[in-house]
What does this fold into?
Amino acid sequence: MQVGTVKEIKRHEYRVGLTPACVRAYIGAGHTVFFEKGAGDGAGYEDQEYLAAGALLCETPDEVYKFAEMVVKVKEPQPSEYSLLRKDQILYTYLHLAADETLTDELLQRQVIGLAYETVEPDQGTLPLLRPMSEIAGRLSVQEGARFLERPQGGRGVLLGGVPSVEKGKVAILGAGVVGTNAAKMALGLGAQVTVLDVNIDRLAYLDDIFQGRITTLSSNRAHLEQVLEESDLVIGAVLVHGKRAPRLVTKDDLQRMKKGSVIVDVAVDQGGCFETTRPTTHDDPVFVVHDVLHYCVANMPGAVSRTSTQALTAATLPYGLQVAHLGLEEAVRGSHALARGVNTYKGQLTYPGVAEAFGRRVTPLDRLIRLQ
It folds into this structure.
């Protein structure tokens, strides 16, 4: 198969879909790899490393899209890339279609096969291609939240870990999944008082166990939500519903319960956000203020640590990519329920239920289009 990767053009996105090591793996398996000049610069990979690995250099993204049967990216295509997408081309990347109806329509109209990292699911509830970025985003959420709590950044002037004789900062985390767990690790490591809310009592029991009672766990209900909003210096939105739009847990009016200069970090912004006031921001303009509460809603948080996140992401995506390249998409999904769940659009048909639900569209099960085992 002819595989390609391009330079990410989403604002301040520095990751890359393939590293030189990935190129060697694809070529070693008998495939051809095209890469756009400068594609790896943001993650610290030079063109010469790709050439040494055996990739073919393309001066423009147009060339990559022209030749590649499967385009491996990090983020969803931007509007300027829509016209480059070809019929029956496999687009293997994060898509987050449930939060982007325009992109969904483009993929359907252009009959692109949208294979979304975030919905590849080997077993119920496990998302191996989302997990590494969720781990990084969870850790960054506390790091960035702590920064914007500083007074020069507009925050309350609170040090999360406090000092002797001074109360520690309070962090509330909405969601006890991968993002929430990693956020709790970081917040606890900084010495903050940490409270985690979730609807899954078993998951809360698990966190209580692994953190040996050093965090507070609360069932997610209205009373507890109002309580933590009033008390917390930093609130992290870490709620994920697989392939669907994130539920909006906090309304605009709720912000008036929060302390002036407190900070919200909405990690769920890619899926629409779990705060009513969420809107995507960028690394160069990361925050805005509503009702005296700072909102950090950067839609590609792991891009800030591009070297680490590229290595973590490609380690997870490469095995599935090789499987598709070796067998072809149709044969690969026949033998892998995980990959079948990853297909969001297939040759003009919307195949993922969560995306269809988000926009009130009709879903066509993939097994009606491809005979699955």
